[in-house]
Amino acid sequence: YYFPCQRWLAVEEDDGQIVRELVPVDEAFVKKDSENDGQSLATLGLEQKAKSTTYTVKVKTGDKKNAGTDANVFITLYGSKDDTGIVSLKASKINKNKFERGKVDEFTVESVDLGDLKKIKIGHDNKGNSTGWFLEWVEIDAPSLGRCLKFPCGRWLDKSEDDGAIERIIFPAELQTKEYIPFVPYEITVYTSDIFGAGTDADVFVVLYGSDGICTQQKSLCLNKREQRMYFERNSVNQFIVEV
């Protein structure tokens, strides 16, 4: 069995995850003597994307006194087929200081097929100066499935508040579930010209238009400013796997 990764495990890189679930692929993808290594890796990206589901997890901290927490927060997603195991919510895409009073934080969680999401478990390790946390709600969006679920909480995760629990199991609110056209993964290759000043550090985005006039949302190709500085250099070729 071959389990290629080709991804960062770093809070400040990629989607910020430091744990990855890998799926086995055909050995042809890992043969180094292939003349089409680039094409093989690109196809590998699509292959892995097709076997996994990317979840966008939004977490709302309540607007109450001392609602924010400095503790390490974790989440587990439970589906009809499987669960993710414990996932640390380390790198918020929106706020440098995460889980602050009244704020919404956004995280990315990747997993193999879980089936229909049934419940989540969310909690913290009670470590740090200010550990108590008031969790308003959690929203989990799965673009490849075309479903967005809301998990209302409205309770403390605090040893000195409410019932003293620092982790909770929450179920989705059926009336708040949204369904839409599922997203599709595309491999996008960008060739930057070899003329003076051709490269850019700007936020490069793509919109795809179909034959019937329907278009995708605007999608940035780089995940952060460091990638913006690294990609789209003069005379370079950059490949991206994006879901739109």
Automatic annotation (TrEMBL):
<dbReference type="InterPro" id="IPR036392">
    <property type="entry name" value="PLAT/LH2_dom_sf"/>
</dbReference>
<feature type="domain" description="PLAT">
    <location>
        <begin position="1"/>
        <end position="23"/>
    </location>
</feature>
<protein>
    <submittedName>
        <fullName>LOXH1 protein</fullName>
    </submittedName>
</protein>
<dbReference type="GO" id="GO:0032420">
    <property type="term" value="C:stereocilium"/>
</dbReference>
<dbReference type="InterPro" id="IPR052970">
    <property type="entry name" value="Inner_ear_hair_cell_LOXHD"/>
</dbReference>
<dbReference type="GO" id="GO:0007605">
    <property type="term" value="P:sensory perception of sound"/>
</dbReference>
<feature type="domain" description="PLAT">
    <location>
        <begin position="184"/>
        <end position="244"/>
    </location>
</feature>
<dbReference type="InterPro" id="IPR001024">
    <property type="entry name" value="PLAT/LH2_dom"/>
</dbReference>
<dbReference type="Pfam" id="PF01477">
    <property type="entry name" value="PLAT"/>
</dbReference>
<feature type="domain" description="PLAT">
    <location>
        <begin position="53"/>
        <end position="171"/>
    </location>
</feature>
